[in-house]
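task queued by scheduler; priority normal; single chain, no ligands, no partner chains; default sampling; output format set to structure tokens
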Amino acid sequence: MNSVVYFNGPVQNGDFTFAERPGKAAGIRLAEALNGLLGLDAVPHLWNTVTLAGDLRHRRAAARDTVGRQQREQEALAAKYAPGRTPRGGLRTDADHQVACLAREMTRGLLADGTLTVRDLPVRLCTRCGYMAGAGTARDCRSCGHGGARVARRPLLVFDRTAHGPVLGRDDVHAAGARPPSHLFTIAHHAPQLLVLSRTRDRGVDLAPLGLEGMVLDPRAGLHVAVLAAAREFGAVRPVMTVTENAAANVAAYGAPFRRHGPMRLRYALHGKIPYETAVSDRLYEVHRAQAVKDLFTDWYLPLCAARERAGISAVRIPALLKLLRRAHLARPTTPPGDLLADLRHRVAAGDMRWVTDVRALACALADREDTSGLMGPTRGAP
């Protein structure tokens, strides 16, 4: 089996295309860039389709009776990409059969060892559609808009984290040489002690086989299972999920019980946001005479820089980063030196991203990228 393999944190299947919102592809591009440097085959792009917004879109669709939810999600996913640019590694979602099977397998094991339990708890249910509202939810039902709710007791899948230590620690972050994200540890520490992991959704990992009729696994947990399912398919022991700090803060506590399975151990590779509104400006490349590296800069180098600058890349840094890439591109050797390439791959596998601003290491990475057939530009199915 492979050791470290990078997968994107599943992207929510919202109403956008990558052409309109290139920042949505940052995690996908980062995973592809890192795996490429490790000499690995393409991995699937992962998507989050277990959402209330997706439920609502499908219910309101004019062709609901003739187009099923699965087909609608697949059509929406295909539309995210430029025509003819289907990812070479394929697409996977958090509602796929393999994910559901693995999620139930893991949940049964976690119930058996006491990590998870099923408890009868009071909940607020919409009196019209039965949607289960969370604490602090607005008066009107988020699912159907109805204003009436009732309190009832129902069995729920819960994770009581009081007996299981921190839900996020230094060892959960894959970033050798980087400062630990202490603020994320603090946020995770303040998550509720009792986390409900079963939800009312139209789509998702059905928990009925576990005695929880009408409920699915919380998608924040399901995202982690989707990565593990893809990793198992790929033969990866140490899957690393690319994710923004904000996303990690939102999902880490709910995914804590689902980061290990057998020999697999999932970690997070944090990355910041990219100011694409600045980075795609044609004027930027005219001024710096860098039109030849525009796609390389936006699709490959900036995602790598975002993994180094985890709080986000400042727009004022874009010209300097472009000049650095252009300089390294001009200096790239015909064949990357073996010792430098080996060191680079060791650092990539360890999550050490300090090399991205080292001109010599960057030139080596560019040479290796060109030397590996098909890796230049977006020709391997990049969005």
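post-processing summary
- The radius of gyration is 22 Å.
- The chain is about 40% helix and 15% strand.
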